[in-house]
Amino acid sequence: MPNYIPAAKPAAALIVVDVQRDFMTGGALAVPLADEKLPAPEGILPRVNGLMAGGGYARVVLTQDFHPAGHCSFASTLGVPLYAKGKTAAGRGQVAWPDHCVAGTAGAEFHPGLYARYANAIIRKGVNPAYDSYSGFADDGGEQTGLAGYLQSAGITAVDVAGIATDFCVKATALHAHENGFATRVLLGACAGVAAAGIEEAIAELRAAGVVVIE
Ligand SMILES: [Zn+2]
C-alpha cells in the first residue's frame, strides 16, 4: 500500500529544521548523513532544496538553533560529560551537548548550500539561556516562538517537516505541529538523524501521536 499522501496544497507549509553548519560535516555537533557532499539519499541537502524550490508549498519556514554563549544545553555549562544527562538551573533534565549554534558564530549559520532564499520566515529557537528548545514551536519552558501563529495567520492547515535531527528537533517540531492542530507529516528522506535506534523510536513515537511518517 503506498504511504505517500499528497499534501493539501496550497494550505501546506514546509518546515526545514536546523540545516546549519554546526549540524553538518565539520560542525560542532555534526549529524551523520546530513552532509551536502554525499548524494541523496545519503545527504539530505539536495532533497531539502528540491522541496523548498519546487515543493509547491504556500509557506517555507526555516528553524535556526540559536543559543547564547553559556546556554543550558551545553556540557560546558552543565558541568557533566558530553552526551550525559545533566540538570539545568531551572531543574530540568537536559542532555549535555557540545557548544553548538552559538549566536554570531559561523556554526549557527545556515549551511551555505541551503536554498535559504526560498524561505518565507526564519524562526530562531533556544535563544533563552535557561531553556533548550528542540521544537520550533515552543521551548522547554513553554514559551512560544510565534511559529504556530505565523502559520495559522497564513491559513496553513498542513505541515511537512524535514531537516536535522530526526530523533531530536525534527521529532519535537513535528509533535508540536500536530498538537497545534496542523495535519503533520515527517519526510524521512529529507531528514538526518543522530542514532539509528533513536530514529526508530522517534518514528514509533510520531506515528503513535498521529503524525504521518513518510519513509
Ligand atoms: Zn541546540
TrEMBL record:
Q: Specify one Pfam family.
A: Isochorismatase
Q: Which GO terms describe its biological process?
A: pyridine nucleotide biosynthetic process
Asked if the keyword Metal-binding belongs to this entry, the reply reads yes
**What EC designation does it have?**
3.5.1.19
Q: In which pathway does it act?
A: Cofactor biosynthesis; nicotinate biosynthesis; nicotinate from nicotinamide: step 1/1
Q: Which GO terms describe its molecular function?
A: metal ion binding; nicotinamidase activity
Keywords tagged on the record = Hydrolase, Metal-binding, Pyridine nucleotide biosynthesis
Domain Isochorismatase-like: start-end pairs: 12-214
PANTHER family annotated for this entry? LD05707P (PTHR11080:SF2), PYRAZINAMIDASE/NICOTINAMIDASE (PTHR11080)
What family, per the record? Answer: Belongs to the isochorismatase family.
Protein name per its UniProtKB record = nicotinamidase
What organism is listed for this UniProt entry? Termitidicoccus mucosus
